[in-house]
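Q: Sequence in, structure out?
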Amino acid sequence: MSVLTPLLLRGLTGLAWRLLVLCAQIHSWAPREQLRTMDVAIGLTSCFLCFLLPLGWVLSHLESYKKWE
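A: Exactly. Output:
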């Protein structure tokens, strides 16, 4: 190892420590308004339609994907 390696490592760890401290100081406040039942229903429905429905279609047609054509 060269003479500069410990100095470089010390400099990098010092930089990483400062970044961690900056990230740790981020705060979140309470929401201005609560989510209503309709908001939750729309969110859950959109998640179902976007993720679970195509996944179910692919899994139900899995045997046709295995066939060599």
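The chain has a mean pLDDT of 79.
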